[in-house]
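chain below, 330 aa
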Amino acid sequence: MAKIYYDKDANLDLIKGKTMGIIGFGSQGHAHALNLKESGCDVMVGELKDSEPWRAATEAGLKVTTADEVAKASDIIVMLVPDQLHREVYYRSIEKGLTKGNMLMFAHGFNIHYNEIIPPPKIDVTMIAPKCPGHMLRRLYTEGSSAPALVAVHQDASGKAKEIALAYAKGIGCTRAGVLETTFAEETETDLFGEQVVLCGGITSLVKAAFETLVDAGYQPEIAYFECLHELKLIIDLIYQGGLSYMRYSVSDTAEYGDYTRGPRVIDDLVREEMWRILDEIQDGTFAREWILENQAGRPSFNAYRRREAEHEIEEVGKKLRAMMPWLRG
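prediction:
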């Protein structure tokens, strides 16, 4: 069982008097910076000068400067720019500003685990990874709640790396819900695996295959969209709220029986074998090398995939049907 830490296990005083340097004011960055500020911490934001995020951070009442200056002035430097930018930003702007006693923190282990960033031994290297999007982390904090997070220590130069990381987790609110202890390797590999075989790759491929099957069989695309995509949120919300058993309790007996008897025919031994191959590619670094090279080459395959998927019939049908649903536009 994972070890879980709560408010009582974290001492916010460990980061009071320290300067938190948030590199990037995007989805996660804005939430971390504002939550820390409202927890009484000294916060700086590193962004591109005069960019939209720079202006947004300034308007939010935060001190904003370049990543180079943040690295020099901060005690805890938190890398919250997109993963593919970490290496460039780190070696261009962060590394030269690191001094003994600093902490370098991440919200995802990719660049440390795959050695894209190799920090000096004189600093702590940790991770606090909230298990929700940044806008939700911010909203929950303002409501007095929070989402859980993961904590990991890659390098403990100070002897207090985990305690300081937990204090940071308390500063952004996550110890209210619970912070699970993990490692950089476990977080990175399970995160990539979940994205690829379930949360993004698995679901989108399953939805498209089901949609295409019904359309090819002569059913109306609009009906196929409703049955294979639109109603997915209803099921996911039930699972999110109470697990698989609660979903099965909530749907019809017919649906539940179909779940038990037909689901394993779709996700069969061949699919499981492919899942193992995908996990192997994550563990041995094959996927990481592929993604790193894709970015270095200017993302030709990524951009082609994006264009092709945007033109899929399910997207065109969905756009038309969602226009009938004003509640989706808030």
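The chain has a mean pLDDT of 97. The beta strands are 4-5, 19-23, 42-46, 63-65, 76-79, 103-106, 124-130, 149-155, 179-181.
thats it, cya
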